[in-house]
């Protein structure tokens, strides 16, 4: 997994040296996350923050990779599942206008925290979550003046969240809507 992420970032770095519009910046936003195929779960609202690098490869096409800390998981009646990841989405961007784009690509995530927290404050660490998460990403972006950008994305999990079968939610996958605001330095 680490080799794949490194190779993807190296490819983007090499590509951006040939690109006409290098893009480097920071972004932050809000996640509305849950787990699929599990009854009784509601959205967990969390934050997402990190950096991005990308390039516009002509008038209509671009590519972007992010390095993000992302709070995900779900809430249930007695508490919440806190699943925090370091995610690396790599999206192709098709520009419908010079400012508006649609995005799609893969996302690779590494779990950095998994715990269940009950409403009475009890915390259960290491709840048996897969260490790696692979998702698909679709979204839209809008570049506004002064280097600002707005993005909305949906991340749909392709790997099961629990590492063992037999759990009540053993086929559950991450499902995350993200709204973010970014600032490009270039």
Question: Top keywords for this entry?
Answer:
9 strands; 186 residues; PorT family protein; OMP/PagP_B-barrel; Porin; 9% helix; Beta-barrel_OMP_2; eight-stranded antiparallel beta barrel; signal; elongated; mainly beta; single chain
Secondary-structure element sequence?
Answer: HEEEEEEEEE
How far from one another are the termini?
30 Å
User: Order of strands across the widest beta sheet?
Assistant: 1-2-3-4-5-7-8-9
Backbone CA Rg: 17 Å
- Biggest β-sheet description: 8 strands, antiparallel, barrel
DSSP, total strands: 9
Question: What name does the CATH topology carry?
Answer: Porin
Determine the oligomeric state from the structure: single chain
Keywords: Signal
Pfam family, one: OMP_b-brl_2
Protein name: PorT family protein
Signal peptide: 1-19
Structure description:
A hairpin with a 4-residue loop joins strand 4 and strand 5 (100-118). The chain has one domain: Porin. The model has no long low-confidence stretch (mean pLDDT 87). The two termini are 30 Å apart. It contains 1 helix and 9 strands; from the N terminus they run H-E-E-E-E-E-E-E-E-E. It has one helix at residues 2-18, and strands at residues 21-35, 44-56, 61-76, 79-95, 100-118, 123-125, 132-143, 148-157, 174-184. It is elongated. Strands 1-2-3-4-5-7-8-9 form an 8-stranded antiparallel beta barrel. By secondary structure, the chain is mainly β.
């Amino acid at each position: 997994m680490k080799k794949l992420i490194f190779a993807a970032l190296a490819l983007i770095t090499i590509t951006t040296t040939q690109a006409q519009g290098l893009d480097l910046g920071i972004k932050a936003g809000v996640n509305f996350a849950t787990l699929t195929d599990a009854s009784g779960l509601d959205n967990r609202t969390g934050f997402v923050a990190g950096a991005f690098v990308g390039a516009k490869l002509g008038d209509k096409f671009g590519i972007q990779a992010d390095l993000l800390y992302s709070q995900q998981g779900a809430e249930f009646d007695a508490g919440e599942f806190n699943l925090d990841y370091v995610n690396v989405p790599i999206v192709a961007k098709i520009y419908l206008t010079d400012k508006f784009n649609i995005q799609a690509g893969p996302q690779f995530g590494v779990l950095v925290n998994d715990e269940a927290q009950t409403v009475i404050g009890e915390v259960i660490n290491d709840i048996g979550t897969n260490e790696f998460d692979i998702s698909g990403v679709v979204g839209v972006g809008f570049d506004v003046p002064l280097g600002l950008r707005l993005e909305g994305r949906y991340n749909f999990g392709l790997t099961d969240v629990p590492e063992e079968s037999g759990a009540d939610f053993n086929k559950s996958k991450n499902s995350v809507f993200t709204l973010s605001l970014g600032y490009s330095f270039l």
